[in-house]
Amino acid sequence: MTRELTPAVPPHLDSFPDHFRVLVVGASGGIGAAMVETLHQLRPDAQIEGLHRQSEPKVDFADENSIARAAQVLKQDAPFHLIINAAGVLHTSDFMPEKKLDDLHYAQLRATFEANTFGPALLLRYLTPLLDRQRGVMVMLSAKVGSIEDNRLGGWYSYRASKAALNMLIKTAAIELKRTQPNTVLLALHPGTVSSSLSKPFRGATTGRSAMDAARDMLQVINTKTPEHSGMFYTYGDEKLPW
């Protein structure tokens, strides 16, 4: 009788090595928590760390020092093969996306850019050095509405602009990393409409899919990406989006 050998690496996320190390920023949010849970399900051998504003170490986008300190602590667990930033904001109890120019206010612009652009920019600075030099992938959750070319409806000024700026940061960083860390893959990824607190006021609960489905879809896309894809913008369905 021929004995069937069990593969060392499960069929899911098989582009990553055995016992690969993962870091999820924004792990307390809907998509971030789903990413952590789905990673545990797909790759039980993975070593997964989740960070957020109440974690230890904490990551608070309003405090640059918290990001620097977290990176210093994480050095002992580096290198990481996969880093995902799932943190971001569309609305809060204080504001909703602007529908017209008359709705623009400095406080909303500042809060939106802090969460969607400034914080992720500092993650690029402090965390990319912690990526594995052979197979290192860093993913920033962006949004299709951040595509300038795809903007046909207008509105949502702060959110659109903050994600467009994030996309530029990702593209620019990818160019630099091709020189200094040539095996690194840096991606902007659109999760689609997900049933979460972020999408709830916009019929997300009825039109969106579950965060677990979104996480699984995005991880499938991430698994296929190599350095030649670095600096690109994809949907959860692996469609390449225009900047």
Shape: globular
Strand order across the biggest sheet?
2-1-3-4-5-6
Low-confidence stretches: 1-7
The overall average pLDDT, rounded, is 92
Class from helix and strand fractions: alpha/beta
CATH architecture field? 3-Layer(aba) Sandwich
Q: With helices defined by DSSP (H or I, 4 residues minimum), what is the helix count?
A: 6
Question: What's the gist of this structure?
Answer:
With 243 residues, the protein is an alpha/beta fold.
Describe the structure.
It is a single chain. Helices cover 36% and strands 13% of the residues. It is built from six helices and six strands. It has a single domain, classed as NAD(P)-binding Rossmann-like Domain (Rossmann fold). A six-stranded parallel β-sheet has the order 2-1-3-4-5-6, sandwiched between helices. Helix 1 (30-42) crosses helix 6, helix 2 (64-74) runs parallel beside helix 3 and helix 3 (106-127) runs parallel beside helix 4. Helix 1 (30-42) links the parallel strand 1 (21-25) and strand 2 (47-51). It has 243 residues and is an alpha/beta fold.
List the main descriptive attributes of the protein structure presented here.
alpha/beta, 6 helices, 243 residues, Rossmann fold
Set out the fold topology.
Elements: E1 21-25, H1 30-42, E2 47-51, H2 64-74, E3 82-85, H3 106-127, E4 136-141, H4 157-180, E5 184-190, H5 204-207, H6 211-224, E6 232-235
